[in-house]
């Protein structure tokens, strides 16, 4: 009997929060409508019409994407407007000028990661780079080796590529991470077999911002003759990455995470010792046969320019972002209790602040804070209400995984935006907690862990 | 030929004035902040060759900002103020 009562209570709590959501949505609609009618009724205030429009939310989702840097657009525009040649046309000036631009961009990317330009292959983005690296290496060496190591907190495209290879008959080890989100190096060493061809471990996690010990992992891989791939989409241009010092064999780069355009990325492929991959796209043999298809020179110019700007601005950005990050964390935790930062307190990229607000449902908080563009995890999974698999992998409790918000600070974030976010966040969390039956129970001193919510 | 302090100051003011004209709040505040911090950082420069190089960079940046300000006004959202503005 007690079980059913508890069950009823849970359903009540659930419906309450759902109703709250609907209610807030309706309210938002109503105010928007009344504003509109006011404007149409009052024609004498036509000049003020524009100021009645709701302001745009501020952007605090730097891990999903970033606005393009104006310097990047400035580099791209001539190629969108005047220089339209196919970079692979060898017979006329249109082709030559485009090719020159592509090769300049290749050098800009290479300079940022400390590689040779010939080791950089342009792709459509980090997802393609990850697919190409994992499937490409696995397939090329499949006659001798059939084992791949990765971690549970990788990006979906790495996990899905591995899943795909598992269906093809490969063996994959999904390494767990410690509660701070970092892998255990001993565990990694133990997972290596003679048949291991590739290890794929991301540099900076997209959800919790944790930095893996890439140099150490690279060392272990080199010793054991395992190719080392890292998804550095979230790291490039933000933290120093050098493929030689870190002994990286393959590395994925994304354009729009470095304030460049979307739809372009790159894959670094080491030449010495040589890493061979089986191409996924067949065709004209562009990019040394590894990625056929006309190189989109406008986007590539944007990526190159973004890398150059990033190299120039890295120290300035880093200092600023760490200051803003500190301000945000301190502002929120000094005014709210039961806020947990997910990930490692030290080995984390400052621009990614993942906080769990206990006893508040993350999605309701996102709705309540509609003036701030935020996300509860990766953009790819933001449509579903499932808690993040990354947070579950670091061992966060189901309820805390449900109440997490990711604050992404970027180059263009200002102090005013951080202060606005802090005050909004504090007031909304307080409001939501006041409505929450769970919060009430906690205030009464009931240990929520002692309650069994589900019957199975 | 190195730029005179007066020319440098003129360029600084021009850069700030132009940066102020960005339609987008974030670009605007970034441009102003970056120009100020850049000049602050290079304040101690005495080598004429270095000053001349930085001056040329400033002139190029000014042209870039002017172009991008123009673009920002062409495609800015109709009356899109940001919440913190």
Question: What features would you describe in this structure?
Answer:
- The complex is a heterodimer of chains A (456) and B (85).
- Chain A is built from 14 helices and twelve strands.
- Chain A is of the alpha/beta class and 456 residues long.
- Chain A folds into two domains: 2-65 and 313-450, Aspartate Aminotransferase, domain 1; 70-311, Aspartate Aminotransferase, domain 2, CATH 3.40.640.
- Chain A has a seven-stranded mixed β-sheet, with helices on both faces. A three-stranded antiparallel β-sheet of chain A has the order 9-10-12.
- In chain A, helix 3 packs antiparallel against helix 9, helix 4 packs parallel to helix 9 (297-333) and helix 5 (126-140) packs parallel to helix 6.
- In chain B, helix 1 packs antiparallel against helix 2.
- The model of chain B has no long low-confidence stretch (mean pLDDT 93).
Could you say how many structural domains of chain A there are in total?
A: 2
The total of beta strands of chain A comes to: 12
**Portion of residues within helices of chain B:** 55-70%
The chain pair forming the largest interface, with residue counts per chain, is: A-B, 24 and 25 residues
CATH superfamily of the largest domain in chain A: Type I PLP-dependent aspartate aminotransferase-like (Major domain)
C-alpha-based Rg of chain A, rounded:
25 Å
Contiguous helical run count of chain A = 14
Structural class of chain B: mainly alpha
InterPro entries (chain B): Complex1_LYR_dom, Complex1_LYR_LYRM4, ISC_assembly_LYR
Family (chain B): Belongs to the complex I LYR family.
GO biological process, one term (chain B): iron-sulfur cluster assembly
Protein name (chain B): Complex 1 LYR protein domain-containing protein
């Amino acid at each position: 009997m007690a079980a059913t009562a508890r069950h009823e209570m849970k359903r009540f709590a659930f419906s309450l929060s759902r109703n709250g959501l609907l209610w807030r949505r309706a309210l938002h609609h109503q105010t928007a409508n009344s504003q509109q009618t006011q404007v149409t009724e009052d024609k004498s205030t036509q000049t003020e019409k524009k100021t009645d429009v709701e302001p745009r939310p501020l952007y605090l989702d730097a891990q999903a994407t970033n606005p393009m840097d104006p310097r990047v657009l400035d580099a791209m525009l001539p190629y969108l407007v005047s220089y339209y040649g196919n970079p692979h046309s060898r017979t006329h000036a249109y082709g030559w000028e485009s090719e020159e631009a592509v090769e300049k961009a290749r050098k800009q990317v290479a300079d940022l990661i400390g590689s040779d330009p010939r080791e950089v292959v342009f792709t459509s983005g980090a997802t393609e780079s990850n697919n190409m690296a994992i499937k490409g290496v696995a397939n090329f060496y499949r006659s001798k080796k059939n084992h791949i190591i990765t971690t549970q907190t990788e990006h979906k495209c790495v996990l899905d590529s591995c899943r795909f290879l598992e269906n093809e008959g490969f063996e994959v080890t999904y390494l767990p991470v410690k509660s701070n989100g970092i892998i255990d190096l001993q565990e990694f060493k133990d997972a290596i077999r003679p048949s291991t061809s590739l290890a794929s471990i991301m540099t900076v996690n997209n959800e919790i911002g944790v930095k893996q010990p890439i140099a150490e992992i690279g060392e272990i891989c080199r010793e054991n003759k395992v190719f080392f791939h890292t998804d550095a989409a979230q790291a490039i241009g933000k933290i120093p990455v050098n493929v030689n010092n870190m002994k990286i064999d393959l590395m994925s780069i994304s354009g729009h995470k470095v304030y460049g355009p979307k739809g372009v990325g790159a894959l670094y492929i080491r030449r010495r010792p040589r890493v061979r991959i089986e191409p996924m796209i067949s065709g004209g043999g562009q990019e040394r046969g590894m990625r056929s298809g006309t190189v989109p020179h406008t986007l590539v110019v944007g990526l190159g320019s973004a890398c150059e700007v990033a190299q120039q601005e890295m120290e300035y950005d880093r200092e600023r972002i760490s200051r803003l990050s500190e301000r945000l964390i301190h502002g929120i935790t000094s005014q709210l209790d039961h806020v947990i930062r997910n990930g490692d307190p030290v080995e984390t990229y400052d621009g990614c602040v993942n906080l769990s607000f206990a006893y508040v449902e993350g999605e309701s908080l996102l709705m309540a804070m509609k003036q701030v563009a935020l996300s509860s995890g990766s953009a790819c999974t933001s449509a579903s209400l499932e808690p993040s698999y990354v947070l579950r992998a670091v061992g966060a409790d189901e309820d805390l995984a449900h109440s997490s918000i990711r604050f992404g600070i970027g180059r263009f974030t200002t102090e005013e935006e951080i202060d606005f976010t802090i005050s909004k966040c504090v007031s909304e969390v307080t409001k939501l907690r006041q409505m929450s039956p769970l919060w009430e129970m906690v205030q009464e001193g009931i240990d929520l862990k002692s309650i069994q919510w589900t019957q199975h | 030929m190195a730029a005179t302090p007066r020319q440098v100051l003129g360029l600084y003011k021009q850069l700030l004035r132009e940066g102020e004209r960005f339609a987008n709040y974030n670009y605007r505040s970034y441009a102003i902040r970056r120009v100020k911090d850049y000049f602050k950082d290079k304040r101690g420069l005495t080598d004429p060759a270095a000053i001349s190089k930085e001056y040329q960079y400033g002139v190029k940046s000014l042209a870039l900002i002017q172009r991008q300000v123009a673009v920002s006004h062409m495609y800015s959202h109709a009356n899109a103020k940001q919440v913190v503005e």
